[in-house]
Design a protein that fits this description.
By secondary structure, this protein is of the alpha+beta class. The protein has nine helices and eight strands. The strands form two sheets. Strands 4-3-2-1-5 form a five-stranded antiparallel β-sheet. It has a three-stranded antiparallel β-sheet with strand order 6-8-7, with helices on one face. Helix 1 packs antiparallel against helix 3 and helix 6 crosses helix 8.
């Protein structure tokens, strides 16, 4: 018989669960004090650098603003002086003809606007680059990007740039102005407005032409300096040249003394002599220097007076390259028809044309 030894059961040991919650550590006064100390030390170490940078930026801005104002004021005074010089010239005979108030005003405004814009761009652009350099920013990538963008914009807007530059040089060189009559190749007429990109012209029929300055390859200004009035007088080859010249001299002296033609003429009227000699006619040319734009009216007046003077002096003005021959007197018998043989009833022609009359029937005999 086996004995079973029963061991006493061991005491139950239940494991205790481990804590899973995280404890939050609240900032202590010592940590805050350390943070404030670090910030104060950082500010103490860098305040001089930031103060120097701020003062440098402020100084650059102040200098740029002051320089820009001074330059713009100088440009404005220069433009005003140009206007006063033009007003002084108006008192003279030449200045009154060459200087136009509206033309001078627009030209001065355009020149002043261009100069002020260029000065502002250069001054403020330089100041911006200096400020960026103060912050130790690498300007090489920025300048390279700006250069590429400028090239792209230049290719895309090359017509606009061409028009703008052409307008600037036209205004600076005073090629034409408001009130001038010009021939721009693509259009001609009186200048109404001059801009940096477009010039407005009024044509002969009243149409307004908008001409881009970049399209103008040549300019013919008919309103600068003086104009020439030329009149060609065609007379018969049999006329006395001395007599013709004397009559023309009288007309020239009369026109040169009367108003308003004496103001429109810039010199005495000249008889240049024979311009051409043909078989039955000859051409005498009369010329005179006039005010700009007054040549046509002087030519019309000269033709009017020369025609009246030649009529009084019994000098015939002919037209065309040759004089037509005078028609001879008509022959009165040219319109009479030749006599006809049919007019005589006894002529053989009349007898042959007479109608045939049938012979009468013989009388009948009755038994």
């Amino acid at each position: 018989m086996s004995l079973t030894v029963l061991s006493a059961p061991a005491a139950d040991s239940t494991p205790s669960p481990s804590p899973t919650t995280t404890e939050r550590i609240a900032p202590t006064l010592q940590d805050a004090q350390e943070g404030a100390t670090n910030a104060a030390s950082w500010v103490e170490e860098n305040w001089s650098t930031w103060l120097a940078i701020g003062l440098r930026v402020l100084l650059i801005l102040v200098i740029a603003v002051v320089l820009r104002a001074v330059v713009r004021r100088a440009i404005t005074k220069l433009i005003d002086r140009m206007g006063r010089t033009g007003q002084t010239m108006e008192g003279t005979a030449l200045g009154g003809l060459l200087v136009n108030v509206e033309r001078r005003r627009q030209r001065s405004q355009a020149i002043g606007s261009v100069l002020r814009s260029v000065a502002s761009f250069l001054i403020m652009g330089t100041a911006a680059l200096m400020i960026l350099g103060t912050f130790e920013i690498n300007l090489a990538p920025l300048l390279a990007s700006a250069g590429v963008a400028g090239v792209a914009i230049g290719f895309g807007a090359r017509n606009l740039v061409t028009d703008f530059l052409s307008g600037v040089f036209m205004i600076l060189e005073d090629q034409y102005g408001v009130g001038d009559t010009i021939d721009a190749g693509v259009a001609s007429g009186e200048v109404v407005e001059v801009g940096l990109r477009v010039t407005k012209l009024r044509g002969e029929n009243g149409a307004i032409w908008y001409v881009r300055n970049g399209e103008v390859k040549r300019i013919g200004n008919l309103s600068q300096g003086w104009a020439t009035a030329n009149v060609d007088v065609t007379v018969r080859a049999s006329e006395d040249l001395d007599h013709v010249q004397s009559v023309l001299h009288d007309v020239a002296e009369t026109v040169g003394k009367e108003e308003p033609w004496n103001e429109r003429l810039w010199g005495p009227i000249e008889i240049l002599g024979l311009d051409s000699v043909l078989l039955d006619s000859m051409v005498v040319r009369v010329s005179a220097k006039t005010m700009p734009g007054k040549a046509a009216s002087v030519e019309r007046e000269l033709r009017w007076r020369i025609k009246r003077a030649f009529d009084e002096a019994d000098i015939r003005i002919v037209g065309g390259p040759a004089v037509e021959a005078e028609e001879e007197a008509a022959d009165p018998s040219a319109g009479v028809a030749a006599p006809s043989a049919h007019a005589n009833p006894t002529s053989p022609q009349s007898l042959a044309a007479a109608p045939i009359v049938p012979a009468p029937a013989p009388p009948s005999t009755t038994k």
